[in-house]
# Entry
Amino acid sequence: MLTIDSLSKSFDKGKNFALEDVSFNLKAGQVCAIVGESGSGKTTLVRLIAGLERPDHGSITMGGKIIASLDKFVQPEKRKIGLVFQEYALFPHLTILENVLYGISKLKNKKTRAQEMLDLVGLGNMGSRYPHQLSGGQQQRVALARALAPEPSLLILDEPFSNLDTMLRTQLRNEVFDIIKKTEVTVLFVTHDTQDALSVADEILILQKGKVIQKDVAANLYVKPNTLYVASLFGSTVHINKNLQNAFRCPLKQDCCHAIRNEKIIVSPSSAEADCEYITAARVIKKIQLGDSTQLVLKLESGEQLTVMTQDQNIADTIYVGFNSKDILEFEQE
Amino acid sequence: MKKILIALATFSIVVACGDQNKKKDDQSSTAETTTSQVVNVYTHRHYEPDQNIFKMFEEKTGIKVKVINASADELIQKMKMEGKQSPADVLITVDAGRLSRAKDEGLLQSIESDILEKEIPSHLQDVDNQWFGLTKRARIIAYAKDRVKPEDLSTYEDLVNKKWKGKILVRSSSNIYNQSLMASIIANNGEAAAKSWAEGVVANMARSPKGSDRDQVKAVVAGEGDIAIVNSYYIGKMLNSPDAEEVKTAQQIGLFFPNQNDRGTHINVSGAGVAKYAPNKENAILFIEYLISAEAQQVFTEANYEYPVLESVEPVKDIKEWGEFKEDKLGLNKLGKHNKKAVLIFDEAGWK
Amino acid sequence: MKQAGNKSEAFSLKTRIKRLKRDINKWSVLTLTIVFFLALPIIFIGVELFSGPGETWGHIVKYLLPDYIWNSFYLVIVCSFLVLIFGVSSAWFVSRYDFLFRKQMEWLLILPLAIPSYIVGYAYAGIFDYGGSMDLLFRQLGLEFIRIDIMNRAGLAFILSISLFPYVYVSARAFFLNQANNLLEASKMLGVGERKTFFKLMLPLARPAIVAGLVLVLMEVLNDYGAAKYYGVNTFTTGIFRSWFSLEEPQTAVYLSALLILIIFTLILFEKWQVRKIKFTSSKTNSTQIQRKEPKGVMQWVIFSAVSLPIILGFILPVIQLIYWAVITASTVFDMEFIMISLQSFAIAIVSAIITVFFALLLIYFSKWSTLTTIKNISRIGVLGYAIPGAVIAIGIMIPTLALDKWLINMLAKVGVDSGLIINGTLIALLYAYAVRFLAVAYNPIDSTALKVDNSIPDSSKVLGVGNLKTFLKIEFPLIKTGVFSAVILVFIDVMKELPLTLILKPYHIDTLAVKAFEYASDEMVMEASIPSLFIIFTAMIPVIFLNKLLIKK
# Structure
């Protein structure tokens, strides 16, 4: 339903690219999360899709029609895309109901529709209030109702929860996606938080420095990450650098980058008990109790430091750590 | 608040359109009847009494007087730009220099009027009948009665004498009356003499030139200097000022008409000419003729303390008390001719 | 795929042209049209530059230019100094402290803007003159009159500063009232003293706001003609008039204007550079209103005097002098015509204010919608009119409009209609000139309020299927209303005071109060000029008070 082809955008006439050669597909009805740090180009990407920026190269096709390319540009108001901003962007001088009505003024049953939308987000009785009289979470729900009211074919949520505190955001995220699921709209969900992405997205697209690093279903991102960066986004990961290779005496392929998931690192009181290919002795220099698990800062035989997690409550001062070659993740050198 | 603003805006548009409509009415009415109903006057004379004269003219002839007030320079620029389409019928200035400049620019036309030619002394009108003087003003020396003996004063040229060091007050050289005075000195004595005269006066100045003619008179009384070069009619105005202090000030100074023993005191005229492309030429001539009628001349002298050009009209009492004087009969065209040179000499001499 | 090619290809000439073709829209064309319309007089003056200066240019450079440069430089320095002292101190005191009559003083401090500076100049000359008000007062008290000579360069700097400082006051106070509270609280929490907070924190942060006001003041200072001429100080503007009229060389005048414009552009660039620096630091958070302190003991009187001094000097004293003159001349000057002239002035001012603001809005929003950054930069040309003396603009307007008029007359003549000038000598030319001259006055307050509206708000509207124009009417206009109204009021006041442009372009039978006042003053009837001056002041005062209400509401 949405096809992005070699999309590029620069804000300084080609010196730096906010978005570089981005291509991907989005199927109808799918929820796709775009994950990346700030400055990775997420916001530029959605602004391009929404028509708020114009691409310097490449094209965007939606529903079989080109909406942006080098020779064509469909105005944002003609694109039928819903967009929810991080800062809510409610019209401060209009009431909640008027905000929701705003995009559907041409509909016949606009009043009923707007009220329906407000009911859907659980603010049915607040239509006559003004945005500043609402809490942040409520404002964001109004923004959602406003974006959904015109029945957009694509809904973009641009970091919708990052202005809210942690407790509220998990709750609101679940609520919002429950609502969205009812509407069966295709969703692009921009976030810098992997938890957000994992909990709601069918597919996740990783952006780094304006480039797509990987786009896949959540499970694959964990098992087969393309880069060390992706690996570390979805679980704590240890980079097996040259020194660690020496410490564990595990010669690995040159010109490649290797890592191991923290939970795949085996900690045991003796070398015999440990069932691993590569192993080394270590001294515990720091123990941090984190609920049911313990974080250990270890000093390896070779003098290297390593941080690992363990469920074991009784840790001696000297232990053995190791791992198996099947668990090693291998990437092309970055 | 919004409503107030909208209301204001509507009101203003109504008023503005009203003005426009009025204007259109004027135009259409003139177009419908005959074009001989108006005379368009570009004037530099900003004097209130002039309005009365215009009203008197309107009453007498039924010709409506439409006025644009601005400085003569701006009016000349305006006429130049408007060219053939210029609505101006009459140009009135407060000095002869600008009139002759307008003539040189081809903005005026020669007219035939026996009244004007006969009544106005020949040195006060253009040789080609393109402009005519309406009133005279003399550039005189005002002195502090308590400090200066009139016998010590003689000519403009004498002002460079060492005895006046730090005693002369005069306004800026950007003023047209000073420029005309300088032009007359160039015409009479030549450029080189004019330049050394300007340098001599600058050396004798009591202070850097500033303010108006009235301010120079006040400064004389305040003791900043002893003598000031000013126009005659300002003294008349000060003597009749609503401000008692000004009257008192004016009473403390004496008037001296320089160069009585040679060429005479420098005079200038306020004058008028008919515009080259005047749409209402006949009215324009009637209008100028009216301005030198006895009743108009009476108003000029009574309300503005100027010397009438009409010899039959007596100057107002205050002026008469200053006595008769010999005036420089230099053809006033020369003032326009030498005006630019005058400004350059002022700059070179450092007369600000 | 085409990894290597994409990056370089994206900015190849071919792609650029393709994009330009895609991105150019009706808004780009409209913006260019408006800019052209507004810049037309300036373009015509610029073209004049190519015909070379007049023959006296060498004479001017030799004898006058050093004086013009030195005097203008002196005025810029001294006025900046005085204006900053008056403007910033009063703005800080009324925002930070609560004292006797503070509320009244807040709007009284804006009132000096209502008096044209040349009239303040006349009034002060009258006050310190021999036989003037001070003289009389001293005599009444039986004292020896020590005459202060105010009619010189220093006096002119004082006059201009005291009548123009409200520009700095207004912008500094807007900053202190709306932005400063969080910072102030943070500073207090850190235990920093009052004085240090002001000098180390408030002053540097308010700098862009202050400099924006200062640039307006300096433009007015450099453009002043009336006061400088009367006080005998030769500046660029008096030089422009001198070379144009006395030396009869418009080309030379154009050269001097070009030099003046160069100086002013340097000032504008300076301001741009200032504002640019602060963009990184200012936050968009909506701060709460500043908490006012009540000063104690001596401070109470120090602050009270510091705030009332500029009001007394800039407004009360000159107005008293004018009223005194008005009383003694009322019988000869005042008549019913005055009411009519006042109404006309008022109507012209409000109509031109609305037109000018309308153009400013078009320029700001059309260029925003045009998406081409080049167009946005070009659109700034539209505000240059403020930097150019009114008389020069008047001529710049007459050249093209007369050409158009002549063309129209010819066309009409072909169809057998005999017509006079259609644009010149009518309100159209005058309103056009005001729009060109005062666009910057309208542009700045609108632009700065527009910047406060987060982009996501109009963006949401567009994504919701509403086009640019409707978004503007329904969303943006309501949000920038205060800025728009302030702009209307500021232009209104400026038009009320405007002189040289009005003199040249005004239609028959339309008089403005400023023209009336000038007519008297230029005939050395300064006393008689007091009544029209007072009318200007009182007509301009009403919107000034209105403007203050707007600012406080915000």
